[in-house]
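hey m, so remember when u said the tokens were messed up on ur end? i reran from scratch. heres the input so u can diff it against urs
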Amino acid sequence: MRVGLVGAGFMGGVHLNAYAGIPQVEVVGVADARIESAVAGAEMVGARPYASYEELVAAEGVEVVDVCLPTAFHRDLAVRAAGEGRHVILEKPIARTMKDAQEILEAFSADGPRLFVGHVVRFFPAYVGIKQKIDAGDLGTVGVVRTSRRSPFLLGWNDWYADWRVSGGVLLDLVIHDFDFLRWALGEVERVYARGMLGREYNRLDYALVTLRFQSGAIAHVEGHWGYPAPFNYSIEVAGSKALLTVDSTEPAALQLIGGAPGEVPDLASGKSPYEKELEHFIHCIESGEAPIVQAQDACEALRIGLAATESVLTGESVTLGGSG
């Protein structure tokens, strides 16, 4: 499968490193407006560098376009690639606005090229283990979930992470991981309330605390922090009527089960990174025609939750969602 990657920044580098471990993929070109970044990215996988998407597809037979551009630029390139008959792997979030997201979905709605959105937490062994325990009923009825995701403030092209109009801030770029996972594990969100630093002068510091109420009655408290003065880390605690399950990336035993009937804790050992698993899965789905673990509509719903949380921060009011669709 011939892949062309567009956007050789931080996430582009992560994707290229993952592709290096997938033998059925040939990365034929890397495009970035900063040609030095394209050169560095191309060297990682033995590809050729280009200064633009146009140059890339004119020179190479690209079957799959991997888009790692700033969020606000997702729509234009995804829609264009779909019109040219190319499959698209789009780094999360799917888009900056629901209008853009819907336009992307419509571009891929007919039989033809396929769209895959990189909500990689679904491929982290610890989170897969949590989902398995919930689905098996080992935790009983889930009542309360607490998550936290903390990261240093990222630097990117034109400092785009610091431009809320482009990135959407910590809610759309970081906490959206938890929004997607929680919806995957617990079902549709009914109501959102959030507080955060949006609208204040945060100077590379962004923080949000979100409360989600699910249609099932479960409550999730979701914390996100950009500008954390230590390495990236995450944690999640799931409390059910039978048992409590916790994951903390800073602890040696990442997943711990407290209470409940004796049983196996999922094996978290893996020789592959979650990004390699994710991209390998997407390529397999293209080759086989199988449905992906992450549907494009799932990505839209995660964005919808993130935008509702943003609205709640700005208005100080809770926001009611109408379910998926």
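this time it looks ok to me. The chain has eleven helices and 14 strands. if urs says something different then somethings off w ur setup not the seq
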